[in-house]
Amino acid sequence: MFEIKHLRSMVLLEETQSLQTCATRLCLTPSALSHQFKELEARIGQRLFVRKSQPIRFSHAGQQLLELGKQILPRIIEAEQALTQLQSPQGGRLHLTIDCHSCYQWLLPRLAQYQQQWPLVDVDLVSPSGFDAIQSLVRGDLDLVLTSEVQARGDVQYLRLFEFEVKMALPPQSEFASQSQISASQLQNQTLLHYPVPKSRLDLISHWPKAAPQRWKPVNSTSEMLQMIAAGIGIAALPEWVLGGYEQQRLLFSRSLAPKLKRQLYAAVRPDSVRLNYIQALCEQITQQATQRLTPPSP
Fold it and tell me: What pLDDT does 159 receive?
């Protein structure tokens, strides 16, 4: 009556709340996905959800299939991984995402190195925009999430990778050049550059809840943010590994926050994946290379 693809589509539709986004994630056209839903409705003789509703409202039949998908899909992924391991202990699937904008600079070259060492592992780096990464991990769409945020839940295990310091990046001509640390009160006359996420998720706000810069300015990428700092357009709180090349060329300088802001980077995985050798290998590689300060290439 229904197939695994139908359950996967239903679960993803609930997550994305958009037929078009859901179709894109499934590598389908919106019309093909719509046809898939209509075909399933014809089979079961009932509507799955109310068209053009926002948020999407599922029918009783649609809700039943949705709940079934949430139960079954993670177990299917587990079985696939187990069978892959039996077939080849050097192979498997590693679909990961980064819940940390600045991690791209050091992760991409290290993924290339990892793939040379583990050629039988299907590695895919998924863009984190528009979906809940941890929910996708639990459901089985992802196998690993790099994050500095830990959620208290039993269906996810967080493997500690390394500790890092978040520093304030400042333009060369900044008035704070003579200071060893920056305090929250000194943001009052500053433009604070930040990634386009809710302010509640910014490391700086968790550290300084009452931070009140003169202006908040969202910036999409780390490289763009660094160039804006060097040009004197604003300042930003960034992980220390981002700043190395720019500081070496004196395009900007950094100062610790008062008090210092230290964070941990974790690999979030499902409990059944913790002992997979290729996941352990990536985590070990990241941890070992953290001792080299994860400095990205110079600009």
Answer: 96
